[in-house]
Design a protein that fits this description.
metal-binding; Fe2OG dioxygenase domain-containing protein; binds 2-oxoglutaric acid; iron; binds fe (ii) ion; alpha+beta; four-stranded antiparallel sheet; globular; 5 helices; 27% strand
């Protein structure tokens, strides 16, 4: 806006500078990934999406863009511009280093899940599964939330207590990949307030923008919306789906 100081987004020089070193390989946390203005634009777009876009679950509501998967397959369709700009172009500047093994192939996220959690809401510990390339980029909007990371027991059941806790502040980006994607589970506790948040219990404490907002280890939950950017591996073209071109 005229005359108003605009926030400048300064990207870390290297992803390694923002790696959460206490976690298994690999997670990265960037506190100021988008500006306050960009956050407001995104929240407005999400709020004004046509009502049938929302799917109400018992413990959160969500939107899926461009559409739900069918048998782990995405029907080829572009994402709307408000979801690609500025987030995807900013993400692409990092991706090379996330996908160390892959020969400089840039995988553009083709799917976005939007989750909204009110205080007391959450998501059970889970793995994201084989439909996606194992890199997840999550942008947080509106308020802070904790993502808990769980291991599995020998019989495959999820451990009772999380091993680590990542605090995601509004406007931050969290990238998870590798073992953290394939071997561990993640979840969000259904609580109204966090307690015991401190440099020992929060794995990304050193990378937080505002650790001072945590008073006596406590942080009250407010509505938090997340954008989860992923790359669905199997994509089907509309023609193939409808079978209109037949077999040759
Ligand atoms: O909202 C989040 O940050 C987590 C969402 C999630 O784990 C998922 O949708 O698979
Ligand atoms: Fe997940």
């Amino acid at each position: 806006m005229e005359g108003e100081a605009r926030q400048l987004i300064v990207m870390p020089a290297s992803l390694e500078d923002v790696r959460i070193k206490r976690l298994p390989s690999r997670a990265y946390y960037i506190a100021d990934f988008i500006s306050e203005e960009e956050e407001q634009v995104l929240l407005k777009k999400i709020e004004t999406a046509p009502k049938p876009r929302w799917k109400q679950l018992s413990r959160r509501r969500l939107q899926t863009w461009p559409s739900d998967l069918n048998k782990d397959t995405l029907l080829d369709s572009p994402l709307p511009t408000w979801l690609t700009e500025p987030v995807i172009s900013r993400l692409l500047s990092y991706q090379m280093s996330v996908e160390d093994g892959e020969k400089s192939k840039k995988l553009v996220p083709n799917h976005v899940l939007i989750n909204e959690y009110l205080p007391g809401q959450g998501i059970m510990p889970h793995k994201d599964g084989a439909a996606y390339y194992p890199v997840v980029c999550t942008v947080s909007l509106g308020a802070s939330i904790c993502l808990d990371i769980y291991g599995s027991k020998e019989d495959g059941a999820v451990e009772d207590q999380p091993r680590w806790r990542i605090l995601q502040e509004p406007r931050s980006l969290l990238i998870t990949a590798g073992e953290l994607y394939t071997d561990y589970l993640h979840g969000i506790a259904e609580v109204n307030e966090y307690v015991d948040l401190n440099p020992t219990t929060v794995s990304n404490w050193e990378l937080l923008r505002s650790p001072d907002e945590i008073v006596n280890g406590k942080l009250e939950r407010r509505t938090r919306t997340s954008l989860t950017y992923r790359h669905v591996i199997k994509v089907s073209k509309l023609g193939a789906k409808l079978g209109i071109f037949g077999k040759r």
